[in-house]
Write a structure and sequence with these properties.
Blueprint: E1 11-16, E2 26-27, E3 37-38, E4 48-52, E5 65-67, H1 98-117
Length: 118
């Protein structure tokens, strides 16, 4: 892993505690073909900076809001991400998460357009 000259150059997660329901999400740039999600429902004054130096690690709950600013250096920033969870729990009524439906519909439309061209 590359060495960084200052703490500003390293990966920094901004962690916010998640309590209660899943917050409203949207796709980055409101593009359902972009897999990344963001939420505007955040009070950044509650964020805690967690700088992660080269070779460092972060562990947090899958529902913890987290963010890292864009890389402003010429050095590549790499990450190895593992996701773990317990067994799924079937809900009587599925959670309303329209961002998932938007992505599925956009991917289906993309596949349909590709099929028309071939």
């Amino acid at each position: 892993m590359p060495k960084f000259s200052s703490i500003k150059d390293c990966w920094t997660n901004w962690i916010l505690k998640q309590k209660g329901e899943v917050r409203w999400h949207r796709h980055i740039d409101n593009d359902p073909l972009v897999h990344g999600l963001v939420t505007d429902d955040v009070d950044v004054s509650e964020a805690v900076a967690c700088p992660i130096p080269a070779g460092g690690a972060t562990f947090h709950h899958c529902r913890t809001l987290h963010y890292s600013a864009p890389n402003s250096t010429a050095a590549a920033r790499r990450a190895y991400i593992l996701v773990f969870s317990g067994p799924p729990k079937k809900l009587d009524k599925p959670a309303h998460r329209p961002w998932q439906t938007e992505e599925q519909e956009a991917l289906a439309e993309l596949e349909s357009l590709a099929a028309e061209r071939s």
